[in-house]
Design brief:
Helices cover about 50% and strands about 10% of the residues. It has about 290 residues and is α/β, with parallel strands linked by helices. The relative contact order is 0.09.
């Protein structure tokens, strides 16, 4: 996934070596005594994106853990405007390799940019559905479908609006897969779990164990088809749109669709939209 912002960030965070406060804590052996930064210097650095990520990386904090750190008893003794700086400063290392901290900062920033990119993907898809008059509900605001394993599931798309109390008819998850071989199986497992939970809660899936006596038989394609017969057509219809090349991910489709109604890949977006529209229209005709 191209991230031009990351390259600019990479350049800016490397330049922090020349920041006056950071340069002042450089030791004779080339390492940095970041714990020697003053609380005012830390507060200043936290107000700029590259140095903010640099300090998070140096302390092994993230946005969530930093917020928790500011609520600790000792931090409450500090004035509110300096609590973040205090929480960070107390965790800064006595000796740090600057290049290693920069590398960790880039990794943190990359994760945030990837999440931002996923949000843009959902926005583009939502606008496309709106333009074609397909009433799928997508965030914002985030729609919450009550569940058991996860009390409040938050699909990327759902219809009808769960705020009305109506059970879901269609349940959509959009997954951007960077490395198919490494990432797709976990995402498929998560969606299969959601599919079974939704169909057992809101549908009447007649799930029966297959009682396979020889584990070598599981590799037979007929096994996946036998499972599919139990979930296919049971509402809600669960759909996964996996943004990755079909050529790399096709081999996962049969197994995934044993428990998930439909899986679409990045070359199949038109088919995905048509399927969502058809499912909603068929329900309206019931």
């Amino acid at each position: 996934m191209p991230l031009p912002e990351l390259e600019e960030f990479r350049r800016e965070v490397a330049l922090l070596r020349d920041d006056q406060a950071i340069r002042a804590v450089r030791r004779a052996d080339g390492r940095y005594a970041l714990s020697s930064l003053s609380i005012d210097d830390v507060a200043r650095l936290l107000h700029h994106e590259p140095s903010y990520y640099l300090l998070l990386a140096a302390t092994s904090l993230n946005r969530t853990s930093l917020r928790r750190a500011t609520q600790e008893e000792e931090a409450q003794l500090v004035s509110p405007r300096q609590r973040r700086a205090f929480a960070v400063r107390t965790r800064l290392p006595v000796s740090a390799d600057f290049d290693a901290v920069v590398a960790n900062a880039i990794t943190l920033r990359m994760g945030d940019l990837q999440r931002k990119a996923r949000g843009k993907t959902e926005q583009v898809f939502r606008e496309r559905l709106e333009g074609e008059g397909i009433p799928l509900f997508m965030s914002p605001p985030r729609r919450v479908v009550p569940g058991i394993v996860i009390a409040g599931r938050k699909p990327d798309g759902v219809w009808p609006d769960p705020a009305t109390g109506e059970p879901p008819v269609i349940y959509l998850e959009i997954k951007r897969i960077r490395r198919v071989a490494d990432d797709i199986q976990k995402r498929l497992y998560e969606l299969a779990e959601a599919s079974l939970e939704m169909k057992l809660l809101y549908g009447d899936a007649p799930l029966t164990g297959l009682g396979i006596g020889d584990n070598r038989d599981v590799r037979d394609e007929s096994t996946a088809l036998r499972l599919r017969q139990q979930v296919a057509g049971v509402r809600p219809t669960v759909v996964g749109l996996f943004l990755c090349p079909r050529a790399e991910a096709e081999r996962y489709r049969l197994g995934a669709e044993a428990l998930i109604d439909r899986i679409f890949f990045q070359e199949e977006i038109e088919d995905c939209i048509a399927f969502i529209s058809q499912t909603i229209n068929e329900h309206g005709a019931d």
